[in-house]
Amino acid sequence: MKKIFMICLAASFLLAGCHSDSSDNSTDTPISDSTIEESSTPYEDLSSSTQTSSLSSSNHSSTSPTEQQTADTVSSSEFGGYATFYFNGMNVPDSININTNTDQITFNVDTSNEAIYTLSMQNIPAKTIRFFSAHTNEIRTVIVSTKLSIGDQLSGTFNSNNQSGDLYLFHNKQGGLSLATPNYAGNVSENETDVMLEVLQ
Predict the structure, then answer these.
(1) Among the four residues 60, 99, 132, 198, which has the most C-beta atoms within 10 Å?
(2) Is the pLDDT assigned to residue 109 strictly greater than 70?
(3) How many Å apart are CA 90 and CA 98, to the nearest integer?
(4) Residue 190 CB contacts under 8 Å (≥ 6 apart), including other chains
(5) What is d(CA 85, CA 109) in angstroms, rounded to the nearest whole number?
(6) What would you report as the CA-atom Rg of the chain, rounded to the nearest whole angstrom?
(7) Average pLDDT of the chain, as a whole number
(8) 29 domain-assigned
């Protein structure tokens, strides 16, 4: 009887030791949809569907949200002031060209539907947006701080959708630049009307 008691007692101590080791490796704050963690890459994916499985304790930081306000700023010198992003899909532009040297943005470059507008690029306080991934079409979340605002139309075909909202530049996981645009197709449910499109170079 003493042997059984001693075995149970030893097993309890071992299990208690394993439990405390695993809790020591966990973070102090739980991961939730409203928690924003700083990642080791410039692109910060905060998607609730992949957050618990893809984030490890090595990616967690004790940085406060105010320290993350400039987490992902894009400078026009990174792309030489000139970059073209190409869409995939229906009811969307073919492409968007950003030219910060002339402060112009061109929709549907070199097509019969080409339209040119004035452009302003500015750094803003960090803002969380949701977008449809260019690769998988899943909804992802990112913190952005570089906003592109479309101004007056200078020439080309009139399309009010082109001026339907601000655009955002951010660094993607592959190290390149992504452009977040309004969902010009508009084919989403009511709870996804804020979800933008990710467009790649």
Answers:
(1) 198
(2) yes
(3) 21
(4) none
(5) 10
(6) 23
(7) 76
(8) no
Please report whether residue 18 resides in a domain.
no
Residue among 77, 94, 98, 101 nearest 147 (CA): 98
The answer on pLDDT for 111 being more than 80 is yes
End-to-end Cα separation, the chain, in angstroms: 73
Sequence-ordered list of residues with C-beta below 8 angstroms from that of 36, at least 6 positions apart, any chain: 44, 46, 65, 68, 128, 143
Which residues lie below 8 Å from residue 129, measured CB to CB, with a gap of 6+? 141, 142, 144, 168, 180, 194, 196
The pTM of the full predicted model, rounded to 2 decimals, is 0.66
pLDDT confidence bin for 89, thresholds 50/70/90: confident
Does pLDDT of 69 surpass 80? Answer: no
Please indicate, yes or no, if residue 144 is contained in any of the structural domains.
yes
**Structural domain harbouring 117:** 76-200
The H or E element containing residue 132 is strand 115-132
The total number of structural domains in the chain stands at: 1
Question: Using 50, 70 and 90 to split pLDDT, how confident is the model at 9?
Answer: low
Place of tokens 């963690």: 37
- pLDDT of res. 3: 56
